[in-house]
Structure formats: C-alpha cells, structure tokens
Amino acid sequence: ETGVTQTPRHLVMGMTNKKSLKCEQHLGHNAMYWYKQSAKKPLELMFVYSLEERVENNSVPSRFSPECPNSSHLFLHLHTLQPEDSALYLCASSQEEAVNTEAFFGQGTRLTVV
Amino acid sequence: GENVEQHPSTLSVQEGDSAVIKCTYSDSASNYFPWYKQELGKGPQLIIDIRSNVGEKKDQRIAVTLNKTAKHFSLHITETQPEDSAVYFCAVQYSGAGSYQLTFGKGTKLSVIP
Fold it and tell me: A55 and B34 in contact by Cβ < 8 A?
C-alpha cells in the first residue's frame, strides 16, 4: 500500500462514453500527477497539479480533462476516447520542496477503449 | 527537453548472479536520478535514488552509480532473487524552479531464473 489509491482498477468504455478516473492520496502531499503507461513506451506525464493548480499540461488531447478539487483528490475525466488511448493510467503524488522528493504511485487504472 | 535512454530492454539472469541496468540522459542540469520497480499489476515503486552531489549509493543488495560527466547512471542488483523479477525504470529530474517533471526510461524487464 503506497498511500495512493486509484479507482476503478479496470475500465472498459466505448468511444462515445464519458467516464472518470479517481485518485486519492493519504500522504499529505501537495502535488499530484497523471501518467499514461502504454506498452513499449516510457511513462508519459500528462498533467501536474501543485497546490491544486495545474502547472503542466503536456500537449494532452482535450478528450482528457483533469480536475483537482483539493490536495488529496485528483480526477481524470474521459470522453470520446480512441482505441489508442487504451493504456494503464497512473496517478502519483509527491511533496514539492526545494529538494527532489519521491513520487508515490497508485496501482493504476487499466483502461480499454472499444 | 530531457531524453533518457535505458538499456537493456530485457535481461535474464540466474538466481544469485548480478544484474546491471544502465541509463543515459541529455540535460546536464538534471540532478535527481531515481529508480523505480514495477511488479505485475502494481504501480512503480521507488527502490533507490541518487542526487548529483553523490557518485554512488548502496542499500543492501541494490546500488546506483552516477557519472555526471558522462551523463549516465546505473542500477546494480547483486545476489538476485526470483522476487527481483519485475520491470525497472530509471528516471531523471531537473531541479529548476517550478520543475516537476520526471522523465522516465522505457524500462527493463528483469527475469531472475531460479
């Protein structure tokens, strides 16, 4: 148990569906992240929230919409996805300070778009 | 942006032997180098990290070495055990103001053969 919980663990959705991924951290961290992990590709950073404000958006398509209502919760809203969006979506959190600190990952949501 | 190369992509060793995974990076301003282990069905977990003011760090059977001049760092696992089988990722972070991004290598799938 890393202190970062993601739900659901598995999700199958059609291309016209709307769904949301949820992440919750119990570590008191002030930064949260969404990563995409596809087969044979590096982990790709999608979004970063620090102190509940989005600080990075790495050219992610608008069909992915993040939301960070407070420092403990992070959502990824999905709509009109494509089959190539099928991947493992990982949430992470860390404490942003002057010195680099460890990122703690959740177990991920395995997303399949059909 | 930062570019991280990780080799090899797969590695098989006999139980008890050593395993070495190498990463190179491009941005000389990077100064934080963590290694993550990802077991099947789980998110990545930090196993060891090193900062640019240190050349080597050891924690029981795992060690990391850093050569900032050559811009490469390596993970060493000695006396490998079957439970070491997993995918290992190196990562690099630039510790500039407002920087949050970890750039990951593509991963190395380590198989320890009993």
Answer: no
